[in-house]
C-alpha cells in the first residue's frame, strides 16, 4: 500500500520538500524487560508537518525522548540531515532539533524573555570570561540575542509579557512560550509533544495557525497529539504508534480510513488480526533474530549515501525487508512511498 | 489616658466589617497609637532608672542614652506613621503602601524594645522599684501604641470551611492555621505605588541617604558595647525594617536603586570604605574585616548555591586551600617552601590551588544528581582538615606543619604600603585591621562584580535554568555538566582568593579554622546559613546574613555554649517558615511559596 | 604486620558497622530522595541512649549479659523517637519544598542534636567511657575476634537477616519497595506513603542504634561528635552499594570497611607511600574510594542505572 505524501500547502518560500531532515531507523527502546518502542522507522522531510498519534502508553513520548537524546535507543539510530544524532540532549539541540515537553517544563522563575534567551544558548558563544570582563562583542551578542528573542516573542504573541515570570502566564501562553523558547535555538526540526493538551478549541485553533507559521519559516515539524482533529488538519503525514510499534503511516485520509487505527484506539481486535499469541511469538522471534541485523547493514549503507537525495521512507517490519531497505535509499523523492505494512505484534508480549 | 486591657478578641470574628485584631474602635485605636507614640518619645527624655548601674546610663533627664535612643527612634517612627495615616500634609510620602501595617510594626518595635529595657532593668537591678517614672511612662506609652495599632482595621481572611468529619485534632489544627493567617493578614499591607520619575540628582541623593542610613545602622550594631543594647538594636532594627517595608518605603527605595544600579553599587562600596573612618580604634575594624571575609566567601558560595543550585557543604575548605597556599608562599618561617611571593602572585596561587581542587571534586560528581555533590563536598571539607592535620612530618610528609598550622605569616606589603603599620589618612589613624579591611573590600568588589556580571549573561541564565529544571535546560542545548563545573570552579577560586587575604589577616592558618561547623564563622555550615538566611541568589542577602551571623554570636556572649544549638534550631525554623531568607530574590520567593499564585501546576515529572 | 585473613575480618567487622548505619541513609533516600544528614546524629544519640540505660537506670555493677539487651532497647528507643520526631516535625512539612530546604533542615537538626548532647548530657563535653563486655578475645583459626567486636560479630548478621525478611516477606516491606519505585503510584495503589516513610525512618534509626551500641563496645568510648564522620562514612557506604538499594548498603559498608582496613595495613608497603599508611589516613582513603566509585560506577555496586523520567 503506497501513499503519496507530497505536501499540498507548502508555501513557495519554504525549501523544497524531499530533503530528509529526520531519519529514524529501527529505533527500539527497552527498559529492563519492557520494550516501550520497537523497531520504529520514521522520516520527516523539510517543509513537512508529520504527526505521531497513538493511544496512551503507545510509546510516543519515549520515541520522542529517543529522538532528542534524552534516552539512548537500545537499538537503531536517528539521523538529522544525514548525520547520526549524538546521544546527549544538549548536543541534539545544538545540531538543530528542538523540542517542547508534554508537561510544560518552563524555567518557571525566570522571566518570559529570559526563558527565550536560554533557548538562544546554543547559538551564542559568550562564556564566563566574556561576561565578567565584558569583552568586546559581549554587549553586541547580548543585544542580538535579545532582539532575536523579542522577535520570537512577537511571533508567538507574548512580546508585551516579556518581563513577566513564566510561571505567572496562563496555561495557553506557557505553551506558546515553550514553543518560542524551542524556536530560539534556530532548529531545522521542531518536535512538539502534545502542544494542545488541555487547551480549549480557540486556543487549539491558534496553535494550529502557529504551527503552520512555523512550518512556513522552513522548519520541519514532528508533532505528537491526541486531538485527532488537530492532527488531521495539520499534518501532511501521520504515523500511528500502537504498543511501541508503528501500525500505519500515511496521509490523513489513509490513516483515518484504516480500521486498525480505529480498533487500536477503541482497544478492540480488528478483523483479520493475527491471533494474539502468534503475534506475540512472532514479535519475540523478531526481537531475537532480526534486531542485530538492523544495526549493521543500515549503519554502513546509510553513511555511504545519506546525502540529501531521497526521502527514504523505510520499509517496515518484515524481516526480509531489511535487505531491500538498504537499496531503497536511492529512490527519488517523488516515490516517497510509505509502506504501511501490518506490524504483527500489537498484542505485545509483556 | 485610660488603657483598658481588653481581652484579645478571638480571631474567629465573622469577616463582616473590617475590624482590628482587638476590639477597640478603629478611631480610638488610631488616636491611641498616635498618643502612645508621642508619649513614648517624651518618655525617652526622662530618667528610666535611678542608678547608672544599668549600662547606658538611663538616669539623665533631657538626654536619651543607650536603649532610650532606640526607643526614641521607634516611638518617632510610630508617631510619624500614625500622623501620616491621618493624612497630615507632608507626611504622605512616608506611607506609599498604606500606613496601618507600618504603624503596627513600628509600634511593635517600640513596644518590644521598651519593654525589653524595662524588664532588663528590673531583673538586672532586682525589682520594679528601680524604675523611675520615665520607665513606667515608656512602658505605658509603648503598650498603648501597640494596642492602638492592633485595633486598626484590616481585611480578615475567609476561613476555610471545616469538615465536620475531621477529628478534633484536625479541627484544632484548622483553627490554629486560620488564626495564624488572620494575624498575618493583620500585619499585611498593600503594594507600594510606583515612584514617579524624579530628577536624577534627587534620586541619587536618596540613594546616598539610604546608604548612609545603612552604614549608620551597621556601624551602630558593630559598636554596641553591651548585650542589652545589642538585643535592643536587633529588636528595633528588625521590626523597624519590617515597618519600613510595610510602609512601602523599601519597595520605593529599591525601585530607585534599580534605576541607578551602578551608582548604588559604587555608593555601597564607598559607604563600606567609610566604615573604618567611623571607628576610633582598630578593635571594631577587626570585626569589620572578619565580617567582610565571611561575607565575601558567603557571596562566592551564593554563586554556587544561589545561582546554579549546587549544594556545596565543604565550601570553607576552598577558603582553606587558598589560605594555606598563600601562607606557604608568604615567607612564613613555618612554611616548608622558603619563598616570598608578592601579593598578586600569592593571590593567583591561592585562587589557582582552589580552582584545581574545585575541578577535581566537581568533575566526578557534577555529572550525577545534586545530592552526591552535597555529600562529596562535605567529605572533601572533612578530608581537607584531616589531611592538613596529617601533613606534619610524622603522620605524613611535612607540608602543612600539622595542627600547629603555618604561623607568623608576615604582613603584606603592596607597593611599599605596609599593611602592618598604622597609617594616617585624612587625619584618621588607620590601623592594621583597617588596612586589611580595605584590601578585603577590593576582593569583595571582585566577587560582587563576578556575581553581577556573570549572573546577568548567557552563562548566568544557564545556571539558573539548570537550577530550575535540568532536563529542560539540557533540552535547550545547555551542556549541564560544563556549566555546573564552571559555576563550581568559579565559586572555589573566589573562595581561594578570599583565603589569601584571610591568611594574612589572621597571622596563622590552622586546620581547625576550616571546620564544617564550629562556633566561629566562617565555617561551611555558617556560610550556607548566611546564604540561606540572607536570601539565595541575591547580592545583599549573604552580606546581611553574614553580618548577622557574625555579630550575633560575637555580641551575645551569654549565648556562649548554646550558640550552635540555637543556630541549628534557627536553621530548622527558618526553612520551615521563611525559606526564601530575609531578602528574597523575587524568583526564589515564588519558588518556595508555590501554593497560591501559580495559575497552573508546573509538574516536573513525566514529559 | 598482621596477616591478610585477620585484616579481612577486621575490615568486615568495621564494614558491617558502616552497613548498619548506611541502611538508614539508603532507606530514607530510596523513598523520599532526602539525604537525612542528621542520621549520623541519630546514631550518636542511640549510643547515648544505651549509655543512659547503663549509667542511670540499671543498678551499678549489673552484668553486661543482662545490661546489653536493655541498653539495646534504650538505644533503639532514643534513636527511633528522635528519628520519627524529626520526620514528623522537621521533614514532613517540607516534603514539597525545593530540594535544598530539607537538606538544610537536616544540617540544622544535626547541629542541634550534637550541641544538645554536648550541652546537656552530663560530662558529654568530652568522650565518655562505654561499658565493656567481660572476657577475652576468641580465636577462629588464626583469626582473632577482639572482645569489643563480639557483639558486632553476632548482631550484624542477625540484623541483616531480619531486614532481609522484612523487606522481602512482609506487606510493609513490599509497600516500602513500591513507594521507593514510584511514590505517586504506590499512593494510588493504597499504600499509605506517610506511614511507609515513618517506618523507613524508624527502621533506619533502629539499625543505627544497633550500630551505635556496637560502636561503643568496639571503641570503648563515645562522644557527641561520633556521628559526623561515621555518618559520612556510612553514607559513602550507601553510595558505594548503590543508594536506595537496601542490600547495597550492607555490601557497600563491607567493601568500604575492608578497603579502609586494607589501605591502612598495606598502603605503606607501596614504594613512595610509606608515610600514608597510618590510621590517620584511613578516612582519606575511604573518601578517595568514594570519588573513584562515583567516577567509574556512579550507580554504585548494586545500583541500577535509573533513567531520568523526563
Observed structural traits:
heterotrimer; A: 350 residues; alpha/beta; Rossmann fold; four-stranded antiparallel beta sheet; 39% helix; disordered N terminus; disordered C terminus; B: 607 residues; mainly alpha; two-stranded antiparallel ribbon; 21 helices
Structure description:
The complex is a heterotrimer of chains A (350), B (607) and C (310). In chain A, 39% of the residues lie in helices and 18% in strands. With 350 residues, chain A is α/β, with parallel strands linked by helices. Chain A has a 6-stranded mixed beta sheet with strand order 6-7-8-3-9-10, with helices on both faces. Chain A has a 4-stranded antiparallel beta sheet with strand order 2-1-4-5, sandwiched between helices. In chain A, helix 3 (112-119) packs parallel to helix 6 (171-183) and helix 11 (276-305) runs parallel beside helix 12 (321-328). Mean pLDDT of chain A is 73; it is low at 1-16 and 270-350. Chain B has helices at 26-43, 67-85, 100-125, 133-150, 168-186, 200-223, 227-247, 249-259, 261-274, 282-307, 315-328, 343-365, 370-390, 432-455, 458-468, 470-475, 480-505, 524-534, 540-555, 563-577, 586-592, and strands spanning 413-414, 417-418, 423-425, 428-430. Chain B is mostly helical. In chain B, strands 1-2 form a two-stranded antiparallel sheet. Chain B has a two-stranded antiparallel sheet with strand order 3-4. Helix content of chain C is 70%, strand content 3%. Chain C contains 11 helices and 4 strands. In chain C, the strands form 2 sheets. A two-stranded antiparallel sheet of chain C has the order 1-4. A two-stranded antiparallel ribbon of chain C has the order 2-3. In chain C, a hairpin with a 2-residue loop joins strand 2 and strand 3. In chain C, helix 2 (39-57) crosses helix 8 (193-219), helix 2 (39-57) packs across helix 9 and helix 9 crosses helix 10 (246-266). Chains B and C meet through helix 12, helix 13, helix 18 and helix 20 of B and helix 4, helix 9 and helix 11 of C.
CATH architecture of the largest domain in chain A: 3-Layer(aba) Sandwich
Structural class of chain A: alpha/beta
What is the overall number of helices of chain A?
A: 12
Mean pLDDT of chain B: 80
Q: How much β-strand is present in the residues of chain B? A: under 5%
Overall body shape of chain B? globular
**Average pLDDT level of chain A:** 73
Largest sheet of chain A: 6 strands, mixed
Number of structurally distinct domains of chain A: 2
The percent of residues in helical segments of chain B reads: 55-70%
Distance between the termini of chain B: 67 Å
Strand order of the largest sheet of chain B: 1-2
**Biggest chain pair interface:** B-C, 55 and 50 residues
What's the arrangement of strands in the largest beta sheet of chain A?
6-7-8-3-9-10
The CATH class label of the largest domain in chain A is: Alpha Beta
Q: Please describe the biggest sheet of chain B, giving its number of strands, its sense, and whether it closes into a barrel.
A: 2 strands, antiparallel
Question: What is the terminal separation of chain A in angstroms?
Answer: 30 Å
Q: What's the helix-strand series of chain A? A: EEEHEEHEHHHHEHEHEEHHHH
Keywords (chain A): ATP-binding, Nucleotide-binding, Transport
Protein name (chain A): ABC transporter ATP-binding protein
GO molecular function (chain A): ATP binding; ATP hydrolysis activity; L-isoleucine transmembrane transporter activity; L-phenylalanine transmembrane transporter activity; L-valine transmembrane transporter activity
GO cellular component, one term (chain A): plasma membrane
